[in-house]
């Protein structure tokens, strides 16, 4: 509960957020934080580890109904992965740009482990369509997250919706290539 309450506050205030503010928001005494965590640095570490953890994204991917059409499954997967990247970016960006000491190395799932777990969940989501795929589900699962990083990122070109991204991913950029 402390970590879940602290994450949005860290996103807003960076490492300058006080433990008193976190305790008030959680409805607990400040001393309770220090009975659970050694100090503020440990609290920051725990919040970053939670934000970087693939658990939430994997749960969302696992919850997607495999009986839905592949484009619908992948659009939901894109939404889940965008939310995951947004959570990571918000907390890391806040700590990096709002001053204060960055907590350094983070405990928890490392980048390789996170990537492996997310790819495995994506491959499982693709498995029912294996016979129709041109490449193995594992390979497509490795390619799919890169799709989310290919947004135009300009003011005059809006981001594609998850459905639009999936359409380009599955059918290419040429008209009629879906046939």
UniProtKB/TrEMBL annotation:
Domain HTH tetR-type span(s) in chain numbering: 1-55
Pfam family for this entry, one: TetR_N
Keyword field contains Transcription: yes
DNA-binding region: 18-37
Alphabetized UniProt keyword annotations: DNA-binding, Transcription, Transcription regulation
Signal peptide limits: none
Zinc keyword on record: no
PANTHER family membership: HTH-TYPE TRANSCRIPTIONAL REGULATOR BETI, HTH-TYPE TRANSCRIPTIONAL REGULATOR RUTR
UniProt name for this protein: TetR/AcrR family transcriptional regulator
Organism of origin: Streptomyces atrovirens
């Amino acid at each position: 509960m402390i970590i879940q309450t602290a994450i949005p506050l860290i996103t807003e205030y960076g490492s300058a957020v006080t433990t008193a503010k976190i305790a008030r928001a959680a409805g607990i005494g400040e001393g309770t934080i220090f009975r659970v965590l050694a100090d503020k640095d440990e609290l920051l570490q725990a919040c970053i580890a939670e934000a970087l953890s693939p658990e939430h994204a994997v749960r969302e991917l696992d919850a997607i109904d495999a009986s839905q059409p592949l484009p619908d499954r992948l659009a939901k997967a894109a939404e889940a992965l965008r939310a995951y990247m947004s959570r990571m970016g918000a907390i890391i960006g806040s700590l990096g740009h709002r001053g204060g000491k960055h907590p350094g190395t983070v405990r928890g799932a490392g980048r390789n482990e996170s990537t492996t777990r997310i790819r495995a969940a994506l491959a499982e989501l693709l498995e029912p369509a294996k016979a129709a795929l041109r490449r193995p589900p594992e390979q497509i699962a490795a390619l799919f997250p890169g799709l989310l990083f290919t947004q135009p990122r300009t003011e005059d070109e809006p981001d594609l919706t998850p459905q639009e991204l999936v359409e380009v991913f599955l059918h290419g950029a040429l008209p009629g290539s879906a046939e």
